[in-house]
Amino acid sequence: MTAADELITMTAAQMAQAVAAGEISAAELAAAHLDRIAQTDVHVRAFLHVARETALTAARAVDRRRAAGEPLGPLAGVPLALKDVFTTADMPTTCGSKILAGWQPPYDATVTTRLRAAGVVILGKTNMDEFAMGSSTENSAFGPSRNPWDLGRVPGGSSGGSAAAVAAYQAPLGIGTDTGGSIRQPGAVCGLVGVKPTYGGSSRYGLVAFASSLDTPGPLTRTVLDAALLHEVISGHDPRDSTSLDAPVPPVVAAARAADVAGLRVGVVTELSGEGYASGVLARFGEAVELLEALGAKIAEVSCPHFDYALPAYYLIAPSECSSNLARFDGMRYGLRVGDDGTASAEEVMSLTRAAGFGPEVKRRIMLGAYALSSGYYDAYYGKAQQVRTLIARDFAAAFDQVDVLVSPTTPTTAFPIGERVDDPMAMYLADLCTIPANLAGNAAISVPCGLAPEDGLPVGLQIMAPVLADDRMYRVAAAIEAALDQRRGHPLLAEARGIAAVTGTESEAGR
Amino acid sequence: MSITRDEVAHLARLSRLALTDSELEHFAEQLDVIIGAVARVQEVAAVDIPPTTHAADLSNVFRDDLVVPPLGTQAALAQAPAAEQDRFRVPRILAED
Amino acid sequence: MTQLTTAGDAPGVRVPFDEAVTRYEPVLGLETHVELGTAAKMFCGCPTVFGAEPNSAVCPVCLGLPGSLPVINRAAIEHTIRIGLALHCSIATWCRFARKNYFYPDMPKNFQISQYDEPLCTDGWLDVEVGGRVVRVGIERVHLEEDTGKSLHVGGATGRIQGADYSLVDYNRAGIPLVEVVTKPIPGTGALAPEVARAYVTELRDLLRALGVSDVRMEQGSLRCDVNVSIAPVGSAEWGKRTETKNVNSLRSVERAVRSEIERQAGVLDAGGRVVQETRHFHEETGVTTPGRSKEEAQDYRYFPEPDLVPVAPPAAWVDQIMAALPELPAARRARLAAELGLPESDMAALRNVGALDLVAETVAAGATPEQAKNWWLSELSRVANTTGTELSALAVTPAQVARICALVESGELTNRLARQVLDGVLAGEGSPDEVVAARGLAVVTDSGVLAAAVDAAIAASPEVAGKVRAGKVAAAGALVGAVMKATGGQADAASVRELILQRLGQG
Q: In whole angstroms, how far apart are CA A378 and each of A371, C301, C315?
């Protein structure tokens, strides 16, 4: 392993420690990752924009602060891949859409601001399904990202770019957004830790909205501790977001360090299993549950009967909100404008711009949302979906009366081949089957790797769901699973990857 | 058939999407399948179930009536596709209503 | 009678108003939008300035930039509750904002954050007085929303939206808090309908000003009315189809728009036609309304609860506190002042019409009698205001100064004529009444020596006249008074002069 390879394969926690101790400079660390991006991104296509100079400048600022003896945060100097759905005053923000190609926002998102304040070095903006609508990044107007485990497969989505970047060692930290599983699902299929914090735990200000009542920013990392460290950096009350919770951030770092499940009551959700789930997924999931029991957890089966209605409810609520949220993209104030020939009316130019600027999935959801909100249909669709939401929240409440956390597979299958589900929306939507309930109820959930499916050698994720503002509980479980599995294998799961996810040119070494 | 091509054309107009005939055709087929699937929410006997519009159970989140410095005209107009006289230039507007 | 030629209008001959209201009974409805006078906008911290450089008072939130989020201005909620309480409404214990979805270039997000089926205030009333009759106008709802930007239409002949080549949009106004006050249908006003409409808007304007929630400058568009009118044959059990005339922007226009719609609709019904339920536009220049663009399909605003905001649930203690702090409202104030001033109802109405009630009250408070104060404000000061085209309240004289002038007249230090000159000086910025008196040397000549000398001189100069007076022809003294007044430069009190002359000539 080269020196650069050693740098980029460290965990974020190790990198921060090394920077703080003066063993490596933040600039060195940033340069190593930027080089890695330069070498590998032609294959992975994780980034839409790489901000080399901006990143190096930010890294050097951390080095100066360290040299001046200023206290550094727990992730200072560590590089990060930021999903291109957060506004950045010094980088374009496109949301994977032609309609925003080249848009330079005049302000930073709260998440961006907090990352910068913590000395985290933003390397660039990552690819995503257009406006976060999708489960594969294939809906990006700028082409799909690829799964570093197998370049013929999707990295999941919509935060697929951030997941691919972290799995390909282009960055140790990634930020995604999770509306129906968009962090946890790419995390699962790329062999990473993906976290959807409690809704309102991390600010949405400057996150370009897909579905306001569901969107949640969160971390994508290679370890549970790294996720917890990043979670604490981006979380906490934000007065600019009316839906932000004015409550202490759950002690997730302490929980990740504790990694102890003795006596914890773990519920296996009956409804999130069975038909439609790949055998390898179910096998690894079953083993993870056994492992938890071996670690001292008490396992119970818990039924959440209304979870069966989560997917249809989600595909009414999210499109409804998106049909309204995306109305602002009309070519009048920013972004693409099409058909302004001096004779066309504003109405015509808006329609031509939106037709040219949005991809098919976005159009489908906008029209579906317009349908669900139309007078005459509202009660039967949007109204019913909101009632389902109540029933799902009640299912969670009842379940959490019996157990401390709930577990399920994160996704029904492993990463699927690029192109397989592109024009089959219903098949694509199934990727979020297990992750959607937590979005509808707003509680916290995490995906942690639990092995490879025997049939395709691809990663499987274990989802752990915790009550609102009990995010620390799921970190405790995820860290325990991670430690036990790493110990059993003798190395992290990602070390088993071939291809790009293996460190360059040292496949045999990395494989061991 | 849960949704017709004409209804899709209406939704496209309502959503300001200039779709071609073949797009309309294709979307109509797909939306028909999707609407058929999501209509399952109607199976839930939801008498006396209040709707949840928001996971976060919050109310009365306000800001104080304090002025903060605005962006400024230049920054406001920086990304405009067309601007004139410090205003956003837009194509002719059909009268409202 | 005017033949209507506007395209899209049903044929019909306008029926003169007086005739129309003998055969048709109108029903009114008014929707009034008022910009609140908060310091910052509804959902962001941008200032709510009028007349600033275009697009200078905007930020990511009110420009609707991707990623931005609204946060409710507490003062806007408080103002709305204040209005609701003053209109005797119930205040919601829990309500939400909703998104009203439609595309329009002056609306940055292509939805307006408004309130739909959960308004902050509902079910109140406002009494208005027309010709001595009190009409209780029911208030359906008072809700809060955000204002839109403003468009400038370029090209075309008129600068109007029709025929323009393109438009220029300024978003400074976008996001200013806007309260909408919606009345219940107002039946039974008959021929008084136009005046009732005007009186309602006037009363509402005065109320809003008294509450301190808005400066209500109609000429700047901070108060805008939509006027709903329907008519039905007198005695009919059902109401007719209503039209909604948009953006009627002065008190006079409110009255004219109602009158015009009654005349037009009567013409349509007389011709056997049917009134179309539609949106219409009022034209200041002609005083008529014309139909808006006919819609391809009915608007479907797809309202749904605004997911970026959380519910508003005003605690009872807050509402009670707002209630307790309500100022005296115009109607109560008028009743109190009428009692205190003791002026006849006709004077009170006149003072209200010219907006001088408060000025008179303040003048009285500063020492003038109600009669004096009323006279000054209704005659001399109204004349000046009319000539200069300003509002009474904007004149460069304070009620205290008017009271001082009254006091100088009362004490005999000024004659009425001199007092008018003093007022001119005050209005011209020459200082306080006393300063003007001193500077211009306007005091009444009261020095008995000076006056006596002038009288003696006048008698000596006109022995013939003096003789007549001595002989008992008292009326002849007028000529001597005139001579004395002339000699003193008009600064003597004519009555005193006359008395003095008669005394000297043995007639006192």
A: 8, 12, 31
